[in-house]
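User: tokens in, sequence out, please.
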């Protein structure tokens, strides 16, 4: 059985985008490496 990875999910991506705009969330965001790529706009983060 494959268990979901709740630290690398679409919810974490959304939370990272919200944190970029200084919106608080109770969920974890993606690692710093990925968040910096989000802020560069066109880059994609590979997890």
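Assistant: Sequence out:
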């Amino acid at each position: 059985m494959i268990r979901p990875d709740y630290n690398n999910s679409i919810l974490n991506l959304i939370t990272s985008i919200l944190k970029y705009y200084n919106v608080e969330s109770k969920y974890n965001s993606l690692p710093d490496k990925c968040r910096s790529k989000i802020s560069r706009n066109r880059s994609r983060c590979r997890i």
